[in-house]
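User:
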Amino acid sequence: MAKKQNYKFCFGPWNISEGADPYGPTTRPAQTFDWKLAQLKKLGFDAMMFHDDDAVPDIDAKSEAQIRKEAKELRKRLDGEGIAAEMVAPRLWFSPMTIDGGYTSNDPKARRYAIDRSLRCIDIAKILGTDLIVLWLAREGTYLREAKSGKRSVELLAQALDKMLAHDKRIRIAIEPKPNEPMDHAYIPTIGHALALAQLVRDPKRVGALIETAHCILAGLDPADEIEFAMAFGKLWSLHLNDQNGLKFDQDKPFGSTNLRSAFNQVRALERNGYGSRGEYICFDVHPFRSTKVEHWMDHLTNSRRTFLRLLEKARTFDEAAAGKLIADRDYQALDQMSIEHLLGK
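Assistant: Predicted structure:
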């Protein structure tokens, strides 16, 4: 078991959502970024995740000088509040230029746009004091197989990564895989694909992974196994803990909301492999239920942290010696019940 440590927690401004979904409007009033930053500080979280246009709104309409100026102003505010920037991610999937994908678009102008915006994202990250760039490859896929070459698309992704890595020699890129939504099929659907792609770039040591609970479940995989797979390579540089009720749309439910045992195993995997020992954060990519009232708006975040800490206590008090004896005896029925009763508090 790894040495016990204190964990650091973060979330992003998008995690304080207003309740809109594809079938209905918002159910809570829009709030400013300043208000959301104040909530993070009030709740005692340590860092905030950013998309590039969270840090610098309307980024495509601004010059490089203006982008740097606004990023520096944000850094000053973060420093004043004692809040770190955990990562910055280019939000490519909102732009009309990326209808057919960004890095893998069939349009060379769209590919150029995606790379240029990613370089600006790297500039922002440097100013905010983080070396971590997260890539959710949202539209890097197809709705039909005949539209693109899968091999060519992987080559284009590797070329884009190389250009980002060359732009700043200190940055690290964490790929956040997801098998579907918004695309029918994504080119990099799992952590295994992400780490394989890393081997195609010129500096593979600087390409790693971000794991999200829900994305693993959507791929039919076990999140704890994916966590340990990435950590076996030393490549788990961030994670989004949440929950997911089966193979549906990406639900971003509070951590442990659906499958408490799965959540326990995720925490146990993180704890026994020393996650956080190199400064990594526990990030909650969770959303309030659409029916949540304004006065309960932050509960999905504080509840996720409470669940994590309770499960951390369970992981640290799990009788590993007794479990080892049962494993040696191949008494998995007893191990199963032991795990259940430990979670039940018996």
